[in-house]
Design goal:
By secondary structure, the protein is mainly alpha-helical. It is built from 17 helices and no strands.
């Protein structure tokens, strides 16, 4: 070190404290674009695989001779497997690292995905889908924990919004591709194509994602994990956010599990390829998720959740009309409201949890995918009993739950603000 540099550091140390520089990634900084694109691709692969059978349910029903409520288990098993294993996988990511667990999860999920087209029966298909969901459990919680550790707080909502946007693109592209491929070559070829796309996304993800620089390995001891989970579940704000994520996903899972059945029936009677293209409305979710940070900046977290819930409810009501343009408009509103609400709630979990972030995110993801499984099965059952109006009724009840929980949070915040501060 030169004398000049030594003197400069001494002078600074003697007069003023050296400012702490935040070395985490920020928009425009080194590695941020690579990181964003890598996690975007991970989101694409996750949702494309997770919901690869959803647009194909009428064809699966036809081949195996089962009702919508039975075929819907090919979706519910995948989301249920994810919900069941997301907490254990988050514990592994605390010990072995976020990137390692995400890479292993994608590798197993895409391998199972290449086996799905060869399922000889509905039972085997459901088992494979459950295994696929369990493998994918290493992605969501680890990704949000990675972002919370490696991205500066001011950019966190935007970064998580981009990951959620990748989810929406994966969900959209998976359904659109499967719809057109299935129309020509059947549902087995369609899910095979999704498996190949996921392999490409997984390889690119591993090459692009920067190595973590702020990860600190935690403990795998069950007692430590149980204490962390208990602490998170005792936090009223986190409990509300978990419930909100589950309820939003109940709406979304129900609507998109059943919409294919509705559109194959009169008065629409659409072919499979066109039904798959309906999922292009997911692009609306890509936009609403990626702009969630600006929405929170303008309205606050609770204001953004009220707007997301209101938009979703409006879409449900509009979709009741026996008109294809109005059904599409309803789906656009439902999708925009859902993805905005999900991005706001999931980023709030990452901000609220200061320790055990992977477990906090895992609990959110578990609740979220329990909501998806519930929405798929209850929505399909309601459709069987009361048609599309039955599915819409389930969705409206879930939105009412979101608004009620958010209103309770608003009241709790006002009470806390009026409480006198004691020394």
């Amino acid at each position: 070190m030169s004398p000049a540099s030594t003197g400069a550091s001494t002078a600074v140390g003697a007069s003023t404290p050296v400012p702490v520089v935040d070395s985490r990634m920020a928009p425009g900084g080194p590695g941020y674009r690579r990181m964003s694109f890598a996690l975007f691709l991970a989101g694409v692969a996750t949702f494309a695989l997770l919901y690869s059978t959803q647009a194909l349910l009428p064809l699966i029903s036809g081949e195996f001779g089962v009702a919508a409520s039975e075929a819907s288990w090919t979706v519910a098993a995948a989301t249920g497997g994810l919900a069941l294993f997301v907490l254990p996988m988050s514990a592994l990511s605390e010990r072995f690292g976020r990137r390692t667990v995400m890479t292993a999860s994608l590798a197993v999920a895409v391998t199972v995905g290449l086996l799905v087209p060869f399922a000889p029966s509905l039972g085997v298909l459901v088992v494979l889908r459950g295994l696929q969901g369990a493998a994918l459990a290493g992605l969501p919680a680890s990704a949000t924990a990675y972002l919370a550790e490696e991205v500066q707080p001011k950019a966190l909502v935007t970064a998580i919004g981009l990951f959620v946007a990748g989810n929406s693109v994966g969900g959209m592209s998976g359904r659109v591709v499967t719809g057109w491929v299935a129309q020509e070559w059947g549902w087995r070829a369609a899910v095979g194509v999704i498996g190949v796309i996921a392999v490409v996304c997984a390889a690119a993800f591993r090459m692009l994602l920067p190595a973590p620089t702020h990860f600190v390995a935690g403990s795998l001891r069950p007692r430590v994990l149980a204490r962390t989970v208990r602490d998170h579940l005792s936090d009223p704000l986190l409990r509300r956010l978990y419930a909100i994520g589950a309820l939003f996903m109940t709406v979304f899972g129900g609507v998109y599990t059943v919409i294919g059945y509705r559109l194959t029936e009169a008065p629409f009677s659409l072919p499979q390829g066109i039904i798959g293209s309906i999922f292009l409305v997911y692009l609306v979710g890509t936009v609403s998720a990626s702009t969630a940070g600006r929405l929170v900046g303008r309205l606050g977290r609770r204001g953004a959740l009220y707007l997301a819930g209101g938009t979703t409810a409006t879409g449900l009501l509009v979709s009741l009309a026996p008109s294809l343009p109005l059904v599409l408009l309803g789906l656009v509103l439902i999708t925009a409201g859902f993805f905005a609400g999900h991005a706001v709630a999931s980023s709030a979990v990452s901000k609220t949890a200061t320790t055990g972030r992977a477990q906090a995110s895992a609990l959110y993801q578990s609740a979220y995918y329990v909501g998806s499984s519930a929405g798929s099965t209850v929505g399909a059952t309601a459709f069987h009993a009361g048609g599309w109006a039955g599915t819409v009724g389930v969705g409206l009840l879930a939105v009412l739950g979101v608004v009620t929980i958010t209103a309770f949070g608003t009241r709790a915040a006002r009470v806390a603000a009026r409480r006198p501060v004691t020394a």
